[in-house]
Amino acid sequence: AQALFKSWFVDFDPVHARARGEQPAGLAxxxxxxxxxxxxxxxxxxxxxxxxxxxxxxxxxxxxxxxKPEQLSAxxxxxxxxxxxxxxxxxxxxxxxxxxxxxxxxxxxNDILFGKLRPYFHKVVIAPFEGVCSTDIxxxxxxxxxxxxxxxxxxxxDELIAYADRLSNGAKMPRINWKDLAAYEVTIPPSExxxxxxxxxxxxx
Length: 205
Fold this sequence. Notes:
By secondary structure, the chain is of the alpha+beta class. The chain has helices at about 1-10, 15-20, 30, 150-155, 160-165, 180, 190-200; strands spanning about 40, 45-50, 50-55, 60-65, 65, 75-80, 95, 105, 110-115, 125, 130-135, 135-140, 185-190.
């Protein structure tokens, strides 16, 4: 998934191939046709013609819904920072809300959970169920389903983690906030390209 993301949205391999008059490797003709065959100058350097320069907040948002302990059932699934593995998109452990004493953030299945405390720990997962999580976790989602995996792979990328680490505040307990994450500059593909990426990546996820 990471390799395909980098190929399409960082290195622009399909566009380079089409510019050389070649068929992009591994792509069906109808998918390859969605990519332009030339580049244009932008604030981020050369990008595929017709694509946009924007920020992560143009295609992603955060959920700020909080739930008090007394509103939770004991069986509600809970995810703390301690449950999220480093540098692994899949969640492999969790707890329940039975012993929680403070308000938590609500999330839905497929939301992207981003550990904002000490972001260099690279704790980013796609939620396999709905539940609640620590308020030290940002609950992120794409504004359109087509961009879901595009957003997830950006949030999971080493480049964004390094950016988050630089902008995190606090000496002993540095945290990144959504406002700064949302300002991360990205090249935004048309929704048709993002949707094809979603279709290809979904079985892997």
